[in-house]
Amino acid sequence: MGSIGRNSKCGQGNLDEVVQQFLERIGEILESECVREVSIDEVTEELKALTPLLRVVLSKWVPEIIYVLFIRGEAGFNELKRALNISSRVLSDKLGELEGKGIVVRGIDAQHKPPRVHYRLTKLGKELGLALIPTLLTIKRKLRQEAHSLNPLH
Amino acid sequence: MGSIGRNSKCGQGNLDEVVQQFLERIGEILESECVREVSIDEVTEELKALTPLLRVVLSKWVPEIIYVLFIRGEAGFNELKRALNISSRVLSDKLGELEGKGIVVRGIDAQHKPPRVHYRLTKLGKELGLALIPTLLTIKRKLRQEAHSLNPLH
DNA sequence: CTGAATCCTTTATGATACTG
DNA sequence: CAGTATCATAAAGGATTCAG
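^ Those are the sequences you sent over. The predicted structure of the assembly is below.
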């Protein structure tokens, strides 16, 4: 169940597993001596550079928006609104911001009577969507474990 | 430069490259037909489940805190405060929240005269730190590209 | 349907001061 | 050093209304 990790239907194998392997792999790389040497000042500097975009990408609603667009390919305004359970104002603001940052593009299909609008991810947006998958899967796994341990049947 | 991706010093090879390969790999998996079939309702349901924890993990300051602790292994209160340029109240709140969620643990070393406190990531915290790496690297790459294209020398 | 405009409420955050 | 307490402000969010 769920959009990410529903792998049995995919010929390509288990996404969850691939992510798991990957996390182990970079875990090993990061464990290797070198990381511990990083000074607090270096980390501070790095964060200072990353923070502006980080704040946009990882702010409220944004990961959700990116995720929906990533999975669905595209979505209309009200479709997103319903999916996220968000007010139009906030959604409108966020989409505007994301468009400004080059993460999302707005398209209009004038064919329809009430012209239909749809949002899609740009290349950057797709990259971010992809990059968010490990975090989402990790959270998902955590929730599964909790559900498990609370369920007396397991 | 920077903490993530400073691979030349690591024997284990290029982190950036590993992340890149991984993203391509899961990109392929996700491209394979199956994803597009996911209904908007399924995505909505999934998000509803993920959101509570997602909001904690991806809220302001939290990714930064996790990242610093991830890279450094541990940090004291004021050390974090300086690194993030955050007020004590907010930091205190966030650390309390993260402790409550089992993402961070607080340790006290009573040996020191003013007892020294240090924060570390729990297993879950480390998993999340790991999972955040692709997002951070993607943002970092993006910033590098921008810097590049703005610089006439390149 | 797709939003922009308004108004209003609730958090979140920041600065400052203070304690053990 | 490691916070807590207080106060003031800004930012975020929601509800409603309206227009193209």
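The longest strand of chain B covers residues 104-109. Chain B has six helices and three strands.

Shout if you want it in another format.
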